[in-house]
Amino acid sequence: MKKISPKLAGKLFLERLIIAYFTARNWKPLWLNVLNRKPRNLYLSDLPALNDTQKNIVAELRATGIAVSHLSELFPQENWLLKLQEYSKNIIDSRTDEAKHKAKSFLEPLWPDDPDIDFNNPFLQLTFRPEIGKIINSYLDMYTKFYYFTLNITKAVEEGAAAQISQKWHRDPEDRKMCKIFIYLNDVDEGTGPFTYVTRSTYGLKYGKFFPQRPPRGVYPKPGELESKINANDIKVCTAKAGTVIFADTAGLHKGGYATKKDRLMFTAGFRSSASPWKFHFNYPKDFDEQVRKQNLTPAARYALEVHCPKVSTLILYGGLKKLFNK
Q1: How confident is the model at residue 61, as a pLDDT?
Q2: Cβ 198 vs Cβ 157: under 8 Å
C-alpha cells in the first residue's frame, strides 16, 4: 500500500471536515428549522402582499426553479432599463486599457471583486426595491441575506472554444436554496451567451437528485453527461430582450455566458439564507448607516444588508475552503 505523506493526510482530513460541515448545515431539518428559524419567523410576522405579477413569478420559481420577467413588467411606471444602461455606459467608457487587459478570457468585470455598497448605484437602488425583495423572500419563505453583486461583460469567444467555469453545467455551492437575479442590459440571442437552466432541477423536484451539490464546491458534470440524462424539453435557454430579469435558484443546474457572436452585458445579484456560511462579497463604506437611513428601506431589506459577523468556526473552515478549493 502506498504511503500518504503527513501533509497530504492533513489536507485530506481538512477536506473531509469541511465537506462534512457544509453537508450537515445543508441537512433540511437543521437548515430550515434551526439555522434559519429567526429569518423564517421574521418573514412570517411580515408576510408581503404580492401583486399578480409577483405571485406568478413566485409560483414559477417554486414549480421550476426559474422565472423570467422584464423591468417594464415589474416597474410599469418607471424606465429602469434606460437608467441602468446609461450608468453602465459611463463605466464602460471610463475603463482604462489596464483594466481591459486584466479581464479573463471570456469575462470582464466592471466592478472590483468586493465592491462598495453605494446607493448612488442604480443597480443597488433597484435590487432593494420592495418589488424585488418580496419575490425573493416569498420564494425562500424567509428574510434572506444579500451577499454579492456584479456587472460583467461576457466577451464573445471563437466558435468551438472550450467552455470555461460558469460556461459549463453546474450547481452553485453557496446554499441548498437561494435566489439570484440576472438582468440583461442588451439583447441576448443564441450567440450572446444566454443563461441556460434545467427546469425542475432544484431540491425536491424532478431533477433535484441528479448531479447533487458537493458542498462547498457545487458540482460540474462531465461534458455531455447531463444531456444524456436530462430531457431536452426541460432545458430553458433564456434568449431575450434587454431589460429581461431572470429569477433563478442556482442550486439548480445551469450555465451561461458562452458567447460566440457578440458580447453580453449583465447584472447579477445574489440572495441566500442566513444558514449559509458563504462570505459576503462586498464592502461596507464608512457612511453605510447614513446611506441606509436615507433609503427608507423595508425591514426585510435592512435585514438583507445588515452587517454580518460569521462565527469563528465558520471563518476557520472558510479559510480552509479557500486554501483547498481556491474559492
Answers
A1: 98
A2: no
